Amino acid sequence: MGSTDGGSYIAPAEEVSFDGLLFDLDGTIIDSTDAVVKHWHQIGKEIGVDPNVILQTSHGRRSIDVLQIISPEKANWDYVCKVEGLIPTLYGADATEILGARSLCASLSTTTPPVPWAIVTSGTAPLANGWLRILKLPTPAHFVTAESVANGKPDPQGYLMGAESLKLDPKGLLVFEDSPAGIKAGKAAGCRVLGVATTHTAREVKEAGADWVVEDLRSVVVATVGEEGGVVLKISNGTLRHSIPNRLRRLSINNRQTSEIRKEISLIKAKRPRIGVYISMAVATQFRAALAHRLRVGAEKLADEAAVCDVGDVLEDATFEETTAVVGAFKGVPAVVFPYAVDGVEERAAA
Length: 351
Hints:
By secondary structure, this protein is α/β, with parallel strands linked by helices. The chain has 13 helices and 14 strands. It has 2 domains: 1-239, HAD superfamily/HAD-like (Rossmann fold), CATH 3.40.50; 246-350, no CATH class. The two termini are 44 Å apart.
């Protein structure tokens, strides 16, 4: 399973509206890692290929695409559907649901009106239906499975077909994904993507292009449902979504460079970006919580939006004294205020 590498799950909760939802299955709704490992070990034994080589590239990809590389003679749908259909039966005890998946999926089907949702998976129909049956998980009315598409993820075809099945514009949909290939597919389809850091690190999920990154689906709940369809989701405990420009990463924090940092802030504020507040690891938890509270209620706000995170690998050597030297607008709170680049603001260096 994934890790928190790439940021703490401390982003403030937000409510976001979507016309419908598209879910990957394995790694997003269910965790069948152990079962899939056993499956590929068996396949590797049959075809004479090291299963560890297979497992390095198999997650998030269709089995037929993997077999086309390692054993082309086995790359046909009759074989793939047969062996995948056996996985839930043979290894069902090795799979479980992703935390929060059952309650979230159940809430989508029990609302009035029901929320439009579908599963878009790299697995075959026998595999997907087998897992939902074995784990007794809610089943959507619409599926896009591996044999439905000509090209697997990261090609967007699956998610475009998912949008078509719901009769909705991809731009209004949220994709739930765990793999970089799936995240890229969702983004290429024009959807927004929520990445679940279950099989990959939060950093890998974020770098693949996810708009939100959460640890598991307990961070997502249905807030309200529209009278004519659509849903407002409350997304909590995500990681921060934007990165610090490389040029600012190179700035060490000391009194001589305070003016340079403030100049950067002035330039970036002029273009109405977000402002990031990066707090030294030396700052106590109570100060971090206090600052987060200020930002959520808008007090001393520097721009349209603000965010809080541990500084971690950005300022590992910053001391408490160096950190408090650049307080910015947050008087009395030990924090370092940095602009971070969004919406093309990185071009400001040429201004």
